[in-house]
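Thread: "does anyone have the structure for this chain?"

Original post by V.I.:
We have the sequence but no experimental structure in hand. Need at least a predicted one for the grant figures.
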Amino acid sequence: MTILAIDTSNHPLGVALLENDQVIGEYITNLKKNHSIRIMPAIQALMQDCERVPADLTKIVVAKGPGSYTGVRIGVTIAKTLAWTLNIPLVGVSSLEILAAGAGRYFEGYISPLFDARRGQIYTGLYQYVHGKLETTKRDQVAMAVDWAEQLTEMDKPILFVGNDLSIHRDVIGERLGSRAIFAGVTEQNPRPSELAMLGKDKQGEDVHTFVPNYIRLAEAEAKWLEKQAKNFQ
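Reply from O.Q.:
Generated one for you, tokens below.
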């Protein structure tokens, strides 16, 4: 089994090859550059360095959101195209779950990955490892950072916060949770595409034609358009 994992859902761009439970190659950058231009060369370079060809691939695993609308679309479109062309399974994994998996494996408590969603909001969820397996405690959602922190005051264990956007919301979280809030180190902030591959390894493939990203909410422009259309029918 040779799995190609693709993550362009946020600023970090990552691809990885997992073969028989061994990570044989991984590429990550955390740059504000155009993923649509860089992702295919990154995949090609990784495949070449690992001496693999597309026909060797047996599954595509992609980060399906939430995150940057454009970034999520790029990754999902490429993953769908590759899966359809090669006639192999396609699996989608939560972009938040990938962050939680990488940073919290040995943390005795809950894990709250987050991405900034602007205007004081965050994309987040709550996870924890139970007997070595990552489980969802609170589903992925968009919430005001202050409201999310308030919700978490009811939890009975320390909470590890992880994500490149932590600095934006750290004060709000710290004010409400105090010492119960643990903040991941800088080397743990990037989602690992190898974790993405592992998370999707045993999941059933999804229908390529009906597979869609998980934006959680509409893009602002889409929301305004729908609101305008609704008013026109009143």
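V.I.: this helps a lot. Residues 132 and 227 are 45 Å apart (CA to CA).
O.Q.: and Residues 96-188 form a domain with the Nucleotidyltransferase; domain 5 fold (CATH 3.30.420.40).
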